[in-house]
Amino acid sequence: MYSEKVMDHFSNPRNVGEIENADGVGEVGNPTCGDMMNIYIKVEDNILTDVKFKTFGCGAAIATSSMITEMAVGKTLEEALDITRNDVAEELGGLPQVKMHCSNLAADGLRAAIEDYRNKQNIKK
Amino acid sequence: MKQIYMDHGATTPVDPLVVDAMLPYFTEKFGNASSLHSFGQEATSALEQSRQQVAASIGAKPEEIIFTSGGTESNNLAVKGVAYRNSDKGKHIITSTIEHPAILNTCAYLEKEGFEVTYVAVDSDGIIDMDELKKATRDDTILISVMHANNEIGTIQPISDISKLAKEKSIYLHTDAVQSLGKISVNVDELGVDLLSLSSHKIHGPKGVGALYVRKGTLLQALAHGGSHEHRMRAGTENISGIAGFAKAVALADERLVDDAKHMTQLRDSLIGKVMDSIDDVELSGHPTNRLPNNVNLRFSFIEGESMLLFLDMKGIAISTGSACSSKSLEPSHVLTAIGLRPEDSHGSLRITLGKDNTHEEVDYVVDALVEVVGRLRAMSPIAGKMSLK
Ligand SMILES: Cc1ncc(COP(=O)(O)O)c(C=O)c1O
Ligand SMILES: [Zn+2]
């Protein structure tokens, strides 16, 4: 059902865990719908230097979480905000149609983490 | 890699003895049972022997057995056949909220055709609410259909109690015995049913064959029209090889029922006990004792079923989930919802259905694999340790 790359990210997920003193945290989804994700980011000079995740969810949810952390590291915040669910799915070599909703979570999670970071910056200013 | 199959609720491997029983009917004894020559008579004799075998197994008369293409067709024929034929008496049907889709979607279809259906609730163990059932009966109720044992949680229903109610009110009673055959006693008189569905591939027989028992005198309308096969209740040249295989599977299941049930019950209870001992935050779904000998349905807090299934599959273990994300639909299982589980608990559910050939070693391997997989996923989970889902 899943591509090799999805299974690779699912079985060896990259960047699992929390970042202590993260600059931004995104919490999206809820256990009711079956998928839930936290994304933690570190930002230096407008660039994502570290991205980690924790996910409750199906194979697609875990694989897209892992994939997006790899895609995001090294990008500017603006570039990272432009990552769509389709980008993540494409990078994974495609996802089954019924699983496309799960890949929303990763893109939304990253955006939420960046927003959280920006809100915190504004408060500091 | 070691392969462990524990998804016998989905289907079972065909027993080699069953294959042997089927083989002659492909190449040598290939006749059409409707033909009058000796080839046809051979087929007829196989057909009628099979009918006797299946009938004897469930305490029925041979003429009360209609061979079908399986559980789904049997359920369709039972519910639609009774509904269409008895609509002059009434258009009300009663069933439960935890039936197989082959019943629920048939009922939903009949609702569109102007029938009324009452879906009676079950308690948290999955047992039908008898009071609600009693209250649901009306003068225009023509059929009650309640499954013998549930395919997801294994709960066994009090069919003989329901039978008393149905007889009192002169309502036909149907039960879907697809999951119970070969695991517990299935006898039409003990159960007191008028119609009963069976399927071959859940009992080490071939796929695409099954039967509907129809008690003598029950008014039923055929759904497939054509030749006069199967007492005019199901037209079409009979699937002799499949039917012979089904009958052999029934015979073997009968012979082994007591031993197999004992063995599977031991495996089941050992599996449940060991998982509970070695993993925290696990609950059993379904009735603790009044359940199929081969059914284990566990819910693991903080993690999701499909990801468990995938990791177990990588370890060679085949099981299934009660989780939304793994099935084609995204809804949590209607059965787990009906027993009152919150969606987040349904999402973390696994169904393990044992077979007669599973071993204690396999159970231990699965328990170890579960410990590892659950630990791994919980370490990844944003909610583990933070909140209780119970
Ligand atoms: C309770 C129940 N009823 C009916 C069916 C359908 O049987 P079949 O696959 O033979 O159509 C199944 C099998 O999934 C089942 O578990
Ligand atoms: Zn998902």
Structural account:
- The complex is a heterodimer of chains A (125) and B (390).
- Chain A is of the alpha+beta class and 125 residues long.
- Chain A has one domain (4-121): Sufe protein. Chain: A (Alpha-Beta Complex).
- Chain A has helices at 4-11, 59-72, 77-81, 85-91, 100-124, and strands at 24-30, 35-44, 47-56.
- Chain A has a 3-stranded antiparallel beta sheet.
- In chain A, a hairpin with a 4-residue loop joins strand 1 and strand 2 (35-44).
- The radius of gyration of chain A is 14 Å and the shape is globular.
- Chain A starts with a helix and ends with a helix.
- Chain B is α/β, with parallel strands linked by helices and 390 residues long.
- In chain B, 42% of the residues lie in helices and 14% in strands.
- Chain B has helices spanning 16-22, 24-27, 38-57, 71-85, 101-112, 130-136, 159-168, 188-191, 229-232, 240-278, 305-314, 334-338, 343-347, 360-380; strands spanning 4-5, 65-68, 92-96, 116-120, 141-145, 172-176, 195-199, 210-214, 282-284, 295-300, 317-318, 320-321, 349-353.
- Chain B has a 7-stranded mixed beta sheet, with helices on both faces. In chain B, strands 9-10-13-12 form a 4-stranded antiparallel beta sheet.
- In chain B, helix 7 (159-168) links the parallel strand 5 and strand 6.
- The longest helix of chain B has 39 residues, at 240-278.
- Chain B starts with a strand and ends in a 10-residue tail after the last helix.
- Chains A and B meet through helix 1, strand 2, strand 3 and helix 2 of A and helix 11 and helix 13 of B.
